[in-house]
Design brief:
By secondary structure, the protein is an alpha+beta fold. It has 2 domains: 98 residues, Peroxidase, domain 1 (Orthogonal Bundle); 74 residues. The chain contains 8 helices and 4 strands. It has a 4-stranded mixed beta sheet. Strand 3 and strand 4 form a beta hairpin. The longest helix is centred in the N-terminal third of the chain and has 17 residues. The protein is elongated, with a radius of gyration of 21 Å.
């Protein structure tokens, strides 16, 4: 719970100071990727004896651009308060705030094989109208589904997969046998 509160507080703080919310989101995602993908980089950021200025300079070099002042101040804040390890949680909280404000609904689509763009577009149109939000899909190939589709919207799952139908059928047979 403490981890959630810390991440939420930092995300809300950053969200309130960045002018361009999309740029803030992209910046955080890049930081998450850096920290997760490069162990030495993460360890350097966490090291207590490396000065803040050096850490910030290293981040600037990695990004190969001038970092916005609000982003730099945010980095200084999480480095000084030893919150670098929370960067992914901060990103996830920032994303939730962003999605809420801009009425974006992430949707996970699980399929056994590639799904046609036309079907995705149809699903997007239907869900967008039903939820009154902009839909952003994440398509996940799951060979265990056999066929059909499973859709996850928030904490709700709509399962139209063949695997689910077979399991339901199997359970029905076992119930009748008992």
């Amino acid at each position: 719970m403490e981890k959630y509160n810390v991440a939420r507080n930092y995300a809300e703080s950053l969200y309130s100071v960045v002018e361009d919310k999309k740029t803030g989101l992209i910046f955080l995602k890049k930081m998450v990727n850096l920290v997760n993908d490069f162990e030495d980089f993460r360890l350097m950021l966490l090291h207590p004896h490396i000065k803040e200025e050096i850490k910030i300079e290293m981040i600037k070099r990695v990004f190969k651009i001038e970092i916005k002042k609000s982003h730099e101040n945010f980095l200084k804040l999480i480095i000084n308060h030893h919150r670098v390890e929370y960067i992914e949680d901060i990103y996830n909280e920032f994303l939730q705030i962003y999605n809420h404000f801009f009425k974006v609904q992430p949707v996970e689509i699980f399929v056994a094989s590639e799904i046609k763009d036309k079907l995705l577009q149809s699903l997007k149109t239907v869900l967008s109208k039903k939820l009154n939000r902009k839909i952003v899909f994440k398509v996940i190939i799951d060979k265990n589904l056999i066929g059909g589709i499973k859709i996850k919207v928030g904490d709700k799952i709509y399962d139209g997969s063949i695997k689910n139908r077979l399991e339901s059928f199997k359970n029905k047979i076992f119930q009748e046998a008992i």
